[in-house]
Amino acid sequence: MEAFGLLLHGFSVLLTFKTLFFMIVGLVLGIFVGVLPGLGGPNGVAILLPLTFTMDPTTAIVMLSCIYWGALFGGAITSILFNIPGEAWSVATTFDGYPMAQNGQAAEALTAAFTSSFIGSLVAVMLITFLAPGIASFALQFGPPEFFSVYLLTFCSFVGLGREDKHKTLISMTLGLLLAGIGLDTVSGQLRMTFGYEELLRGINFLVAVIGLFGISEILLTMEERLALRGHAASISLRVVLKVWREMPRYWMTLLRSSAIGCWLGITPGGAIAASFMGYNLAKRFSNDPEGFGKGKIEGVFAPETAAHASGTAALLPMLALGIPGSGTAAILLGGLLVWGLNPGPLLFVEHKDFVWGLIASMYLGNVVGLVMVLTTVPVFAAILRVPFSAIAPMIVVSCAIGAFAIQNAMFDVWLMLLFGVVGYVFKKLNIPLAPFTLALVLGNRAESAFRLSMIGSGGDMFVFWSNWLVGSITTLALVLLFWPLITQIYVRATRLWRPASGGSSAA
Amino acid sequence: MMSSLKSCVAIALALTALSQSAPAQDFPTKAVTLVVPLAPGGAMDIIARAYGAKLSERLGKPVIIENRPGGGTVTAAVSVAKAAPDGHTLLVTPSGTLATNATLYKSLPYDPIKDFVPVALYTKVPFVLVVNPALPVKTLPELIKYAKDNPGKLSYASTGIGTVPHLAFEILKTMSGIDITHVPYRGTPPALNDVIGGHVHMFFSDTALAPPLINDGKVRALGISSLTRAGILPDVPTIAEAGLPGFEAVSWHLIVAPGGTPRPIVEKVHAELRAVTTAPDIRQQMITMGLIPLETPSVDELQRFVASEISSWGKVVRQVGIAGTE
User: Fold this and answer.
1) Main-chain phi, psi angles of B223, to 5 degrees
2) Quick one: which of A303, A291, A258 has its CA closest to A124?
């Protein structure tokens, strides 16, 4: 309960007019930054970092971390309304969020996204409050083999648990992995598939691809179908919020599962992206109605959002407790700590109590205030859908182009985005799922380098993936998920053959 | 592509020749862009934003910090090489972009000497050799002896092939005659994480992230890669002091303008940058971030400096056997 007393002290640090003011400024900026595709939380925090050099550290970190919370909330908005993920971790939110908006349930989807973000963050903050130092050391057990096994698990869960045709999932994933190989290879230092073209040195940026694959291709499809050219009249009122909240307890298992996945992958720098995909896939697998996923199921919004935000928040834990950033944004905040003259690490909790507990208290308060702010804007954002498509489509294309350009300040990326728009269109026409492609594109590089570092470490011995209980159980689970469809088939046949012995079989 | 790039440069040069008459007094006529070839948030970015604000006050025009990450800083360098050589576009480079890449790349899409004019060098970037505390070595000579007794059993982390942490360790290996396996990570945080976790034994870490971990006993510091000690770690000896005299392997932050920028403008930016990067608060910030602040040498000295860095890093790159691999 010592932590509780310190937390109260943190709130007392926080509750001054000045700090609260900067908190709200941070949240507003963050939501704005999150809504614009391509301009993510890390960019927002980095650009505003110099403004805080002259502030006192507590106010500064409260404002910066609130930009981060705001961006986490804002990322969901464009995913749901326009099928354009504002952030990489919002990709999984589009799977059901966008169909919901198309069915006239934009307000429900937004409410679900915001509320589940809030729950995910809250669980992760409580984890930080009460378990910080102990949990942080868990991250240290993760070496290259462990990371590879986590990535493998994410890939395998897609193949094994996906609703789509297995061969199409594999085609999509393989193409993504191929494209992920473009550019400078960090392990060997070789250039791969750049064909002497220096723009390709950077590789294919994931967000550029995603903006094209989801946003532009959706516009192409809509133009072709001419169906959605008129706006959607959605009934919008705050009653929707209450309705979603009443429904929420039914999905407690999904929320809990996603929170746990998110916290785990946030602490070990596996990242919010892997967490959101894994949360979504597992929710689908354990749902009573897996067929409904992808067609506008509210659970399909709850699952990835909770996981992504639990992960985004938990990523701050290793930074505070160890001084090792768990995410891009955490790395920038860490830079800030150094500028303000604070040394991150375990001593931070001892030497700068005001700062640490002020920050943790701001995670609670920032999330509550942020939730209220975004919920009140739900009707405004949902109303955008009433605007006729022919008016809003050019604006979407322009904002996609700005987003793609802003990521690396490169015009080449805008052309690439348009190209991916066409690729996405073709994929949708052929019923090839886009999700495995994007997943492979974002995690392919990391999975590859984790695998090769493991091989350097073990001298080429594959058993390094079973060298301790942690990596062994994750790898085994990954392989079980990969062959899940085969296993269930064998199980069904076995129970048919030996009906009396079915109770003893453990294959399921 | 190469030829179109060259023609672009040629056109840019031709245009400058026409506009060379523009006197330095008129500079700057518009916002100055300082390109940072790395993602936002690192030491280089944070320091650049800090002196960028001061530079903007002195020049009376906005200074825009533009991050162009990716492609091992090559794409940012190409974009600045192609920019109009009028002083309104500058690039801050680590040693890799100009010095190491010259030998590392088979065909670098820019010429480190011809395509850029050095303007100001304001800091050296040292690296600190840290080992997992479970390793039974407390000093550099002990490490060298331990590595000789256990050949091929130890591994070291780096932040990628051809980076300073990689090459620094290769120099150390050559000077001390030890054999240690190289494990290239994707950046400093994962590498440090794995040194603490014991997945890899040692690492030349950047000096911003490592100090708290050293003070906390999570990793053990054996030496600093610069010739002078770093202000942030005053108790850690230099590698040269610790047993390998003459050892130096540091990066630096050098501001360059596109090749062909008129000398008066270069001198003007040089003078302004000298003033802002030696301001006490900026120097203090550099020290806090683990850097060793410098007062910039003159433009002529900088040209000689870049040439000598290209030749000395080139020697290491060839020795390691990775010349022309990229």
Assistant:
1) 180, 160
2) A258
Do the beta carbons of residue B169 and residue A300 sit within 8 Å? no
Q: Return the amino acid letter for B249.
A: A
pLDDT single digits (tens) A342-375 = 766 666 766 677 778 888 888 888 888 888 888 8
Lowest mean pLDDT among A271-275, B25-29, B106-110, B154-158: A271-275
The residue of A147, A322, A442 whose CB has the most chain B CBs within 10 angstroms, and thus the best one to mutate to test that interface, is A322
Lay out the sheet containing B116-125: strands in order across.
B63-67, B32-36, B89-93, B251-258, B116-125, B292-293
Strands in A90-188 per DSSP E: 183-184
What's phi and psi for A192, nearest 5 deg? -125, 135
CB count in 10 Å sphere of residue A459: 9
Read off the pLDDT of residues A121-149 as tens digits, 9 standing for 90 and up: 899 888 888 776 666 667 677 788 988 88
Contact indicator for A276, A438 with CB cutoff of 8 Å? no
* DSSP states along B66-104: EE---GGGHHHHHHHHHS-SSSSEEEEE-HIIIIIHHHH
* Candidate from B185, B213, B289 with C-beta closest to A453: B185
CB contact at 8 A, A292 and A301: no
CB-based contact (8 Å) between B70 and chain A? yes
Per-residue pLDDT, B276: 95
Residue A469: Cβ within 10 Å count: 8
* Option in A140, A188, A453 nearest B196 (CB): A140
Residue appearing with tokens 């008066």: B264
CA distances (Å), B52 to each of A44, A416, B28, in order? Answer: 18, 32, 14
pLDDT tens digits, B203-242 = 999 898 888 889 888 899 999 999 999 998 999 999 999 9
Q: Give me the interface pTM, i.e. the ipTM.
A: 0.76
User: Do B41 and A46 make contact, defined as CB atoms within 8 angstroms?
Assistant: yes
Chain A interface includes B212 (CB < 8 A): yes
**Which residues in chain B have Cβ-Cβ distances shorter than 8 Å to A332?**
40-41
Nearest to A46 among B40, B186, B190 (CB): B40
The answer to whether the predicted template modeling score (pTM) of the entire model surpasses 0.90 is: no
**Hey, are the CB atoms on A143 and B197 less than 8 Å from each other?**
yes
Write down the mean pLDDT value for chain B.
Answer: 89
The phi, psi pair for B183, rounded to 5°, reads -125, 100
| Burial category of A293 from C-beta neighbours within 10 Å (exposed 0-12, middle 13-18, buried 19 and up) | buried
Closest CB to B189 among A43, A203, A325? A325
| Other residues' Cβ atoms within 10 Å of the Cβ of residue B298 | 13
Half-sphere exposure for B222 (CA within 13 Å, toward CB):
24
Mark yes or no for CB contact B53/A410 under 8 Å. Answer: no
Low-confidence ranges of chain A (pLDDT < 70): 1-2, 36-43, 47, 50, 53, 86-87, 132-137, 139, 162-163, 226-237, 268-271, 322-328, 339, 341, 343-347, 349-351, 385, 499-508
Per-residue model confidence as pLDDT tens digits over A21-30: 888 888 888 8
What is the 8-class DSSP label of residue A189? -
